[in-house]
Write a structure and sequence with these properties.
Shape: globular
Strand content: under 5%
Structural class: mainly alpha
Distance between the termini: 37 Å
Order of helices and strands: HHHHHHHHH
Radius of gyration: 18 Å
C-alpha cells in the first residue's frame, strides 16, 4: 500500500481543526506575528521601497525558519506540525460565520444590525450602506478572504509543505498591514503588496474554480 504523505495528511487535519475549533480564542499566532511585524517596522521605516523590502525579509525570516524546521521533522511530527500551522493559518470557519450572520440579518430586514455586523468583514464605513451595498460588501470580503484565508495557505502548503503555509500567511498579513496606497505605505509597502500579488495569483484562480464547482 502507498504510504500516506504526512504533509498531505497534516493539511487535511489542519483544515478539519479549523472547521471544528475555529480560530484560537487567545494568543492567536497571526496576531502575535502582526505585533512582531509592527515592532520591526518602527526601526527601518523610511518612505522608500528598499526599506519596506528589508522589513518584509526581516519579519518573515523567523516564521520561514519555523516552517523549514517543521518540514524536516520525522513523518509523524511533520504531520502534527503541519496540521497545527494550517489550523492557525486558516480563517474559514470565522469567515463563514460572519458572512452567514450578515445574510441572516439582511433576510430578517435588520439593516442597522447588518451594517454593524459587516464591519467585521470590511474596513470601510458602513453606516450609510443600503441593503444591496451591505450584501455586496460581504460577498466581496468572503470572496477575497476565501482565497487569502483558506485556499492560499492550503495551495502553498501542498506545493511547499509547512514553509509554504507560513510564507503565504505571513505575506498576506504583511500586505494587510503595509500594502496600502496611503502616504505612509505608498512606497514602503510596495514589496509587501507585490509579494502578496505573486503568492495570491494561483490560489485566486483555484478559488474561482472551486466556487464554480461547488455552486448549484
Amino acid at each position: 500500500m502507498t504510504r500516506v504523505d504526512p504533509v498531505a495528511l497534516g493539511l487535511v487535519l489542519g483544515w478539519a481543526a479549523d472547521q471544528v475549533l475555529g480560530d484560537p480564542r487567545r494568543g492567536h499566532p497571526v496576531a502575535i506575528f502582526g505585533s512582531w511585524a509592527g515592532a520591526v517596522e518602527r526601526r527601518p521605516y523610511r518612505h522608500a521601497r528598499p526599506a519596506g523590502a528589508l522589513t518584509e525579509v526581516v519579519v518573515l525570516a523567523p516564521v520561514l525558519a519555523l516552517g523549514a524546521a517543521a518540514g524536516r521533522l520525522p513523518a509523524p511530527a511533520r504531520c502534527a506540525a503541519t496540521a497545527a500551522l494550517v489550523w492557525t493559518a486558516l480563517g474559514g470557519t470565522s469567515l463563514g460565520r460572519e458572512g452567514t450572520a450578515v445574510h441572516d440579518l439582511l433576510v430578517g430586514d435588520d439593516l442597522p444590525g447588518a451594517r454593524t455586523r459587516v464591519r467585521n468583514l470590511v474596513g470601510r464605513a458602513t453606516q450609510d450602506l443600503t441593503a444591496d451595498e451591505v450584501a455586496r460588501a460581504a460577498l466581496e470580503s468572503v470572496a477575497e478572504n476565501s482565497s487569502d484565508a483558506v485556499v492560499g495557505s492550503l495551495v502553498w502548503g501542498a506545493l511547499l509543505g509547512p514553509v509554504g503555509v507560513v510564507l503565504h500567511r505571513g505575506a498576506n498579513t504583511l500586505d494587510a498591514m503595509h500594502g496600502h496606497r496611503s502616504p505612509r505605505y505608498h512606497r514602503f509597502g510596495w514589496a509587501a503588496a507585490r509579494a502578496d500579488d505573486v503568492l495570491g495569483w494561483l490560489p485566486a484562480r483555484v478559488t474561482v474554480l472551486a466556487t464554480a464547482l461547488a455552486a448549484p
